[in-house]
Amino acid sequence: xPVPPQEVRKAAARALxxxxxxxxxxxxxxxxxxxxxxxxxLVNGRNLTLATIKRMRSFFARHDTEEEREARRTDPDSPAAxxxxxxxxxxxxxWAERVLREAGV
Length: 105
Known about the structure:
Blueprint: H1 6-23, H2 33-43, H3 50-62, H4 66-74, H5 79-86, H6 89-102
Helix pairs in contact: 1-2, 1-5, 1-6, 3-6, 4-5
């Protein structure tokens, strides 16, 4: 089972920290309970199943809209940026795609 690389772990850790900071000042810190759980898995370097990595790919596909890309560009601390980061951010997307491609999925 694949282990997330360091850059994916760092992106998830940063998103968790940003989410904690936003939670102090707003009721919408970004992300969901599932995203937080995924970030914790990534940060802790857990082996992820292919099924989990497929869910990562699905998350990235659903959230790669022009509106969310713009939100991430203009405000890296936005709920959209935090949610993206909880799943490993752009490094997580590249990693998930690579793992699934190598697995023939």
